[in-house]
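Example record used in the benchmark description.
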Amino acid sequence: MIDDIILETKTNMDKAITALQHNLSKLRTGRASLVMLDGIKVDYYGTLTPLNQVATLAIPEARMITIQPWESTIIGVIEKSIEKANIGLNPTNDGKLIRLPIPQLTEERRKEIVKQLKTFGEDCRVAIRQARKEANDLLKKLKKDSDISEDDMHKGTDQVQKVTDGFISKIDETVATKEVEIMTL
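Model output (structure tokens):
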């Protein structure tokens, strides 16, 4: 019973870590990454369609993304969608291909990105603490209903705390690594 609670807690905490890693992959670090374009949708014949379903996306060099629409008629729509997405990139096109140069990051922009990074880290910590609280509440309820003993409840809460500490240190490590990457590019 306690093992099930611990397993469920670990699963919830893993989801929080996965969400953090997804958010971190969207941060612009001065290198080209197709993940930067993930949330962009294009009005394709009246339907909002993900950019990667109407064009071929590529990274021909470290600081350049190219977008080749499957139909040249939607090149302007794609450009407007990128500008509307407000991801800090200025598209240029030659009639067949859209180029997105990735500008060098300024010190000020790096600091803004680090602030955003730390916010993502804190959001993840909150999710981890929430999973811990839910597990501890469940253990207390089992104790109250006399399904487990007082000792089992304390052992369970100790296990939950150890799991929590492990995930919190994983978050701190991930955020610190990403911060170094952002500040040294």
